[in-house]
Amino acid sequence: MISFRLSTLALVALAVSLGADGAQAKAPPRLQDRLLTLDTHLDTPASLEIPGWSIVAEHKGDYTQVDLPRMKRGGLDGGFWAIYTPQGPLDPVSTAKARDFAFHRAVQIHEMVAAHPEAFALADKADDAARIKAAGRRVVYLSIENAWPLGDDPGLLQTFYRLGVRISGFAHFRTNQYADSATDKPKWDGLSPLGVQLLAEMNRLGVVPDLSHSSDAALADALRLSKSPIILSHSGCRAIYDHPRNVSDDQLRALAAQGGVIQINSVYLRKAEPNPEREAALKALEARYPEGRALPAEQYAAFLAERRAIDKAYPERGRATFDLFMANMLHALKLIGPDHVGIGADWDGGGGVEGMEDVADLPKVTAALLAAGYSEADIAKIWSGNVLRVLAAAEAEAARESAAATSS
Fold it and tell me: Any signal peptide, and if so, which residues (predicted)?
């Protein structure tokens, strides 16, 4: 039998949803939609290599995590779209190919925006993000993950700056000509002499230095030498999981003292359970379909079929959970406060946890922060205020250096 009695909560909800004359009123926007929500490390541009893949269509079962429909559901207003180049040999021929690939990726991002001007807009300044959101579009800053494509010319960063790059890293999984990597043998004991020049060029241009993936010594060098605050665009806390890609409490305190921000990652949250059959199968798959190579439609379909077969035969063991991701974030927040913590989950680059699989799940983060006692003002800083403050500081430093050069 159907009950026609309404609970008190249901009556309150009905009263809010109805106008004085009983007509349906527009529901107030949810908090996630009121917030300016940015992620500082979107590897989604790699998806633009997929045959027939479109950012404005919703995708299921292709291992991607960001597209416009899911951005809308999750309230993601955009962020920093990465020009990622997997590290290769440091010889001139390989480096020139890396440079060309990086320019190709930057052009792809521009083409994505140009193809969908109603949905996306390029951003140059910190103030652009709020304006773009107010216009109902998604924010597209560019970033560089791995400076290897710059070759031996830090001045080439200026060209990428003109293309919209506002955050740049130094190294990736392997040590290169600019810095030691956190996950490779050191060569420079931090930043190389060329890396110091690149840092100075970042300060001159107004590009935020990103030390994610770089070694502890490189982070120390950047904190000491940079004239504007630095960022860790997608990193985590070593107190939660002791991994070279994460940072210690002392490093977090030093970062906050310099005015910088750690953008919390959803990777490196726990030690992976041994799964040798899966690891061997994935390694063989990567050998057949190398990272960064565009595949014809038939080959891409074959890749997906093989990947799904691996997942079925050798499922992941002991995935990190949403609660562990939040423990990572809450540790940083407790240690250095909401002025120095943000989010860079590494979407489409290995990010995602059980309970937060793609960007449609972002409101869960906001709800967890509210439950932990953080105010809407705090959460606004975490989702975008802090990174935009750091970008504004980089802009101010560039203006100061330009004025000094003009007057000298």
Answer: 1-25
Report the distance separating Cα 62 and Cα 44, nearest Å.
13
Could you tell me the end-to-end alpha-carbon distance of the chain, in angstroms, rounded to an integer?
86
Contact 326, 354 (CB under 8 A): no
What are the residue boundaries of the structural domains of the chain, listed by start? 35-272+318-407
pTM of the entire predicted model: 0.91
Let me know if 404 is exposed, middle or buried by CB neighbors in 10 A (0-12, 13-18, 19+).
exposed
Q: What is the pLDDT of residues 142-180, one digit of tens each?
A: 999 999 999 999 999 999 999 999 999 999 999 999 999
Task: Tell me if 133 sits within 8 A of 77, measured CB to CB.
Answer: yes
Q: Are 223 and 349 in contact (CB under 8 A)?
A: no
Quick one: DSSP state of residue 181? B
Total residues found in the chain within this entry: 408
Q: Which residues of the chain have pLDDT under 50?
A: 1-25
Burial class (CB in 10 A: 0-12, 13-18, 19+), 344: buried
3-state secondary structure (DSSP) of residue 71: helix
144 within 8 A of 185, measured Cβ to Cβ: no
For the chain, what is the radius of gyration of the CA atoms? 22
Architecture category of domain 35-272+318-407 in CATH? Alpha-Beta Barrel (3.20)
Amino acid, res. 342? G
Strand order in the sheet with 231-237: 246-247, 231-237, 261-264, 341-343
Which residue type sits at 323? D
Q: Which amino acid is at 360?
A: A
